[in-house]
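Ticket 4471: requesting a sanity check on a complex prediction with adenosine-5'-diphosphate. Repro inputs:
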Amino acid sequence: MIEMQDVWKTYPDGTQALRGVSIQVDRNDFLYVVGPSGAGKSTFMKLIYREERPTKGQIFVNGFNIEKLKQRKIPYFRRNIGVVFQDFRLLPKLTIYENISFAMEVIEANPKQMKKRTMEVLELVKLRDKANSLPGQLSGGEQQRVAIARAIVNNPSVIVADEPTGNLDPDTSWGIMKLLEEINFRGTTIIMATHNRDIVNNMRKRVIAIENGLIARDEVRGDYGYED
Ligand code: ADP
Ligand code: ADP
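Returned structure tokens:
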């Protein structure tokens, strides 16, 4: 469902972040992306959700070459990918309910559908009772659960999560992983960059290591493989 063919990314200042990456990610995979800081992990993720464009090479998502998408098709492409960040990125002045339903306004859902689906995902992340709170009133783990609810509200086929547990303590991180596992179990592909060795080593999913802009390792039931 996601395929990269010899993808290169050179930033305008000349930094070569990726230097010929080819990979295939199947529907319903759970993929960990590991590797040293500066290796190219975030760039790899950004290319998938089209925040950055490759300098060279092809990227396919659900059979579409995302470089060739017509401008008017981009919103449809984006709704198919949910993104989760280390720093949550909730809108601070909107309530939890509004943060989630706002993501549906972008796709012009009708108000009744929006309400039903927002309550459904709030239920899934166990935050129904926080619907009217502001993000600043929630703990880090709760804020990340809101961000995950927002990421899945449009039923994407893929979730891209860039260090989603990076700001959370170990117990809270495990809660987030259980939630992502549940979402994966329900049929969503998950691609997650992480420096969390315990999580990668305990989950035994597919692991790719990016080093120096290249895929250095790709294992079906992999481990973290670094000492840091
Ligand atoms: P990682 O996520 O593994 O830490 P990144 O993909 O963020 O790696 O970065 C890969 C390389 O590209 C690094 O050398 C980084 O400094 C550089 N880089 C990332 N973003 C930019 C940018 N917007 N402009 C220039 N260089 C960048
Ligand atoms: P319906 O089509 O009836 O709205 P859905 O397939 O949207 O049903 O949802 C069925 C259940 O699965 C709901 O509890 C919903 O929250 C959950 N769900 C649906 N899609 C996803 C997804 N991509 N990730 C996680 N949970 C999902």
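Notes from triage: The radius of gyration is 17 Å. Leaving this open until the requester confirms.
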